[in-house]
């Protein structure tokens, strides 16, 4: 399976945990789509061999625990979508070291602590969704950082202590569209699989 470059299994009834050594067998894959299933346990911790990964989409599952440190070393990653799980812990400063990151979605978890301001200084970022967590940041922190509705961030929706910052209805709609596209590859792959079986 080392030649496989995309694994799309979203919107299925799959359950159980994801193998910790998954990247050992998927050395060249660029897209991992496992959203909207029933996976649980902790996220795999060994991501260093997934150095070509561009999209990591594992939202809407039952993953728990903290986000693995190896994820912040994926220097080619463009999309991290881990929203609507049960993840805990903090977002480390290392997120500012991802030079290609465009979409960062961790809303709907149990994350806490402070949000690194470096995330808002990344020139490539276009979508940040961190709503419905337990962050302890203050509104003043983001105002001092110069973050506003006119920021380089196109779609930003953040909830702190139950109060939404920069809550713009248009941004919420756009963010929903952006998130929905992560499950499309899984649906298409399932349709292609059924079609191939029928032909045979």
Automatic annotation (TrEMBL):
What are the subcellular locations of this protein? Membrane
Q: Molecular function (GO) terms listed?
A: protein serine/threonine kinase activity; receptor serine/threonine kinase binding
Q: Which UniProt keywords apply?
A: Glycoprotein, Kinase, Leucine-rich repeat, Membrane, Repeat, Serine/threonine-protein kinase, Signal, Transferase, Transmembrane, Transmembrane helix
Q: What sort of enzyme, by top EC class, is this?
A: transferase
Q: Would the keyword Transferase turn up in this protein's UniProt record?
A: yes
How is this protein annotated for GO cellular component?
membrane
TM region(s), chain numbering: 152-170, 182-199
Q: Give the E.C. number(s).
A: 2.7.11.1
Q: Give the main location.
A: membrane
This protein's record includes keyword Transcription = no
Q: What is this protein called?
A: Putative non-specific serine/threonine protein kinase
């Amino acid at each position: 399976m080392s030649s496989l470059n995309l694994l799309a299994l979203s919107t299925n009834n799959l359950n159980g945990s994801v193998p910790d050594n998954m990247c050992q067998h998927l050395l060249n894959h660029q897209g991992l789509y496992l959203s909207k299933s029933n996976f649980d346990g902790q996220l795999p911790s060994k991501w260093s061999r997934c150095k070509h990964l561009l999209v990591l989409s594992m939202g809407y599952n039952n993953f728990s625990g903290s986000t693995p440190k190896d994820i912040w070393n994926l220097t080619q990653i463009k999309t991290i979508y881990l929203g609507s799980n049960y993840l805990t812990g903090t977002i480390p400063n290392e997120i500012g070291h991802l030079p290609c990151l465009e979409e960062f979605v961790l809303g709907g978890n149990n994350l806490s602590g402070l949000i690194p301001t470096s995330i808002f200084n990344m020139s490539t970022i276009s979508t940040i969704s961190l709503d419905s967590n337990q962050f302890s940041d203050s509104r003043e922190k983001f105002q001092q950082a110069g973050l506003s509705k006119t920021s380089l961030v196109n779609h930003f929706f953040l909830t702190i202590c139950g109060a939404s910052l920069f809550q713009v209805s248009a941004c919420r709609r756009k963010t929903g569209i952006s998130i929905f596209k992560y499950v499309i590859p899984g649906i298409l792959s399932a349709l292609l699989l059924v079609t191939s079986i029928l032909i045979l």
